[in-house]
Known about the structure:
Layout: H1 14-27, H2 32-50, E1 55-65, H3 69-81, E2 86-93, E3 98-108, H4 109-120, E4 125-134
Antiparallel strand pairs: 1-3, 1-4, 2-3
Bound molecules: nickel (II) ion.
Nickel (II) ion binds at residues 66, 91, 93, 99.
Amino acid sequence: MGGGVIRFGVSMEAELVESFDRLIAERGYPSRSEALRDLVRRELVRREWDRPEAEVAATVSLVYEHHEHHLQDLLTEIQHRHHETVVSSTHVHLDAHNCLEVVILRGPSDRIRKLADGLLACRGVKHGGVVATTTGKNVT
Ligand code: NI
């Protein structure tokens, strides 16, 4: 389908619209349309992640103590082993003990999910999180 903007009417229960409007106000959306577009995009990205072969992107954040020598080595080892899906990684020395590492991944969703889970599950990681996002190709 080509570009352009299509306007369409949506019927919704009054209570649902009221809840939606509260959500819009809380999140600071400029309009219902923008909020709705975001919801649709979120579902499209979720669907990409449901397809194992779909190419997706993700960031993985890891906080750990660099004194845990084996952990630093292990995280590096894992990233080398999956160099084809690790796009980049950044290491920040938060203080004398703590490190924050952000790993950017790109590839088939099943492989990315396994790799992200594997990084988070490493012993010694204090806190970690994954942002599962899209390459943007199929989401306008
Ligand atoms: Ni460090």
